[in-house]
């Protein structure tokens, strides 16, 4: 009787390399799915709108809001979106810059800064209405309510 000697080695080097690469790819793909990429959100907007009764004229649907912002510290008005919320129906309207709202640029730099005023002239500007400010590239918003 002949004795047959068998080699008892592990997995071949080629198969081991393929397995290691496959495991690495699966782990990286899992991490990419689980971790936020930063493209869905933006920097948080830190701002507030305060209704100014002295400059407003609700009989003519004109409301003025003082702006306070710390992030961003100033912004181009073209990146600002204002929305009004009707006090009676709750319906929202996107306000157009230059038509429905304007900027009183108190420091004259052409940007929206703390201390500037937003003047809204729209039929929604009555007691109880709300104006919502949002800025492109920032998450969150600032709200001002007409008492």
**Low-confidence region ranges:** none
Question: How much helix is in the residues?
Answer: 10-25%
**Cα-to-Cα separation, first versus last residue:** 105 Å
H/E topology pattern: HEEEEEEEEEEEE
- What is the CATH third-level topology name? Immunoglobulin-like
Rounded mean pLDDT score:
88
Q: Give the tally of structural domains.
A: 1
Based on CA inertia axes, which overall geometry fits?
rod-shaped
Strand percent estimate:
35-45%
Tell me the CATH architecture: Sandwich
Q: What strand order characterises the main sheet?
A: 2-3-9-7
CATH class: Mainly Beta
Counted by DSSP, the helix tally is 1
Q: Any idea what the radius of gyration is?
A: 30 Å
Major sheet, described briefly?
4 strands, antiparallel
What structural category characterises the helix and strand content?
alpha+beta
Q: How many E strands? A: 12
């Amino acid at each position: 009787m002949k004795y047959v000697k068998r080699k008892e080695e592990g997995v071949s080097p080629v198969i081991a390399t393929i397995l290691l690469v496959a495991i690495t790819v699966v782990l990286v793909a899992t991490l990419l799915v689980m971790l936020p990429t930063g493209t869905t959100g933006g920097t948080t907007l830190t701002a507030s709108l305060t209704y100014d009764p002295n400059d407003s004229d609700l009989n003519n649907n004109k409301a003025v809001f003082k702006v306070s912002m710390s992030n961003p510290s100033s912004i181009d008005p073209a990146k600002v979106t204002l929305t009004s919320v009707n006090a009676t129906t709750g319906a929202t309207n996107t306000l157009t810059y230059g038509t429905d709202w304007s900027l009183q640029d108190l420091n004259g730099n052409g940007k929206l800064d703390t201390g500037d005023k937003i003047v809204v002239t729209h039929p929604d500007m009555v007691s109880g209405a709300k104006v919502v400010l949002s800025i492109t590239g920032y998450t969150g918003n600032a709200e001002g309510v007409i008492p």
